[in-house]
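FW: tagging you since you asked about this chain on Friday. Here's the raw sequence from the shared folder, copied in full. Didn't touch anything.
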Amino acid sequence: MDTTRRRILAGLNSRYIYGKFPLLYAVIFLIEVVMMARLMSKFNSYYAEKPVLTMMITNAVLGGVADTVAQSLTVIRQRALRKPGGVSRDDFLAIEIHELDEKNPLSPTELIPPSKRLPPPFDFERLTRFMAYGFIMAPVQFKWFQLLSRAFPVTKAAGLAPALKRVAFDQLVFAPAGLACFFTFMTVAEGGGKRAILRKFQDVYMPALKANYFIWPAVQILNFRLIPIQFQLVSLLVKAFEVL
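HL: got it, structure written out here
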């Protein structure tokens, strides 16, 4: 059974759509989109019955979508860079990724790993980690948004000021703590210990927090000002997906 499963995955992994997008990644992405569409079609009824569980499942699926897109972009970049002559002019997506690489340069081994397999196998363990993190953190994020909503109610008479206060508290309190939880969870889930966690914080935490402060305050103002509370977490995750 395991051999058959590996053979099927290997076959899917070696096939491309229009010679550019790996079939296996497309199948996984399509499954996730169908799950998300099914969930969104009945979101209000699910939310009315079990709001926290609904947010947990929604968070997990969107986390999976975001990671699948991230892995897919990596594959497209690697395939384009390994072509003779590099990125071709007719490959619009690869050109966009290549331009991002020039703005944020990576080492040659990060851009083109030593492995000769194309594309690299889909990382199901990484996908599971992202979905698990989204599932676990959803209740905390949901309760936090409820707390902000009660502390700084947005009304017709007063809309912008309470939204700005929510953003300030969210970015000064929850953002640093949430980012710390993310890096800790992911490092432990990958099998890392205290040293790996400390190294992750030393290398990545502050740049990620600075990037957060550059992007998210403006996004959160719109989120808190215009989006009903039951959709705020979903809206935030969709915006995170768009930024990715």
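FW: Strands lie at 16-17, 21-22.
HL: agreed, and The radius of gyration is 20 Å.
FW: great, closing this out.
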